Amino acid sequence: MPCIRICATDLHPAYSYKCQPVYNNGFEELRKIWEEWDLRIMVLFILFAQVYLHFFGRRRRKSMARVLVNVNVWLLYLFSDLLATIALGKLSKVNEDPTKPKGGSGFHGLPDTNKTMPQIPGGLNETNKTIPHILRGLWAPVILFCLGGPDTLTVLRLEENHLWVRHLIGLFTQGLRTVYVLIVTWNPNGLSVLALLLLIPGIIKYGERVWVIRSRSGGKYQGFIKLDETTIDETSNSASQSNAKLVLQAYYCFQILNPHIDDYECNRKSLKSLIERFSKSVDENLAKGDTDIENSFRLIEIELGLIYDMLFSKVGTVFTVWGSILRSISFSCLVSVLVSFILIGRPPGHLKGDFPITIILLVGAIFLEIAGILVQLVSDWVFVWACKYPGRLANLVLRAHEFLIPKRKRWSGFMGTIQFFELLRGI
């Protein structure tokens, strides 16, 4: 390994007493490239993980054969919080001079004679310190927004709904980290104001996740929308769409049985009425022909889909008053920040490559927000919402739902079973 010995007496009179050997192992350029791109790669990967979880997080209820997709969902879900913590930690140090060694030392561990040099507020020294990393102050709120998770996957396992305190602590700690990043990257210009405005959708998104998980922790959670039996009967009889009737009947079965609640005791009168309805539906389908008999079994399929969306996703939040208000505020802030950022343009002295990455992060956050709203509007829970709040808007949403998704796959078509021979072989 080559060794280059540099005599300190040639550098400064204060270093005449000491010489420092410098080793070059050939990886210096690689280290510089990694230090330049590690944070950029990390924030882009966090955004990619959220997009991947949005599209494939819900597919595990429809497909059990794609093991690779399920493993990727599991890994990305588990490492999202860890990567976000690391990224926020690195963002909190973006204003440190990367050419200056740690520990207050000067050149290669020697005393720093420039340490006593005065820093003029607003002068050249301060400008060179803050301007190159000014765009990265916008990255921290986007990371906090991504920690809120996609609407299709709030928790990976049902037991996580009882750990809402952990997510609340995560909201508090990561929120403080984000605020600290905004403080250390603050500059008296429009970009810092945009970063502060971008903090609002980040807190809303993460807070919505905590709100949903907290609502499920009681053990008797039945969704954000509830209908009584009279409303279900009236709407089901007057509904002209066959899909709407099936969803309402499945919701009625779910509301009576509550199979997701442990040791739940059904009302005998309601249970008897449910059995009579199901028997009547089967008899009617048998009289019509074998082609319509599948509707009786689609009730169970739809019911399981309603339960899955209720326990593992954020479906139903936009159907509440506060949920719709918060989503509107979040979406408005994201669009305002993106438009203002494009109008402001590239700040002078920023690091090359940070501007397009910032655009990608803002566009990705808006895409996740729009995609999350669309997922909720095309879910079966929209029929329940339309029954509770009938009107022109509800009719428009139902027609769009019927047109866009006439027949869709709601489950994988596979069921876990015990093989008798395998059981005997293991004994």
UniProtKB/TrEMBL annotation:
InterPro entries: DUF4220. Keywords: Membrane, Transmembrane, Transmembrane helix. It comes from the Eukaryota. Pfam families: DUF4220. The keyword Zinc does not apply. Residues 74-421 form the DUF4220 domain. The chain crosses the membrane at residues 67-88, 189-207, 319-343, 355-378. This is DUF4220 domain-containing protein. It comes from Actinidia rufa.
